[in-house]
Design a protein that fits this description.
Radius of gyration: 16 Å
Number of strands: 8
Shape: elongated
CATH superfamily of the largest domain: 2,3-Dihydroxybiphenyl 1,2-Dioxygenase, domain 1
Number of domains: 2
CATH architecture of the largest domain: Roll
CATH topology of the largest domain: 2,3-Dihydroxybiphenyl 1,2-Dioxygenase, domain 1
Oligomer: single chain
Strand order of the largest sheet: 1-4-3-2
Amino acid sequence: MPDLNPYLSFRTDARPALEFYQSVLGGELGISVFGDFPDMVQDPSQQDLVMHGQLNTPDGLVLMASDTPDGMTYEKPQGISVSLSGNTQEVTQQVWDKLSEGATLTMPLDVPPWGGTFGMLVDRFGIAWRLHGDPE
């Protein structure tokens, strides 16, 4: 079966965002930069931008991201969120506490009508998240 993975686009913040997500979710982070591939960007100051980054967590989650160098159209993500569910309420609370540092909380982590815990935020990198902790 094929994989369906979130792939986040940034102007220049892919590396700090991926490093932050690694600090929140754990796992192995691999990063390739534009400078690794000759002629990918014209501006030498953009050689260290992330062409492809991939975080593989111990739980089997895969989160990918890249930067958008000058000369390529970039639009901030909108109308989509990264949903993290299937964890215990305790793990959800731990992830929430870390992700919410510098974030805008759009719906506090609380008990929704369907049980468990649920909350929404936009992290400090502008990425919308929805977290759900399973009922215990």
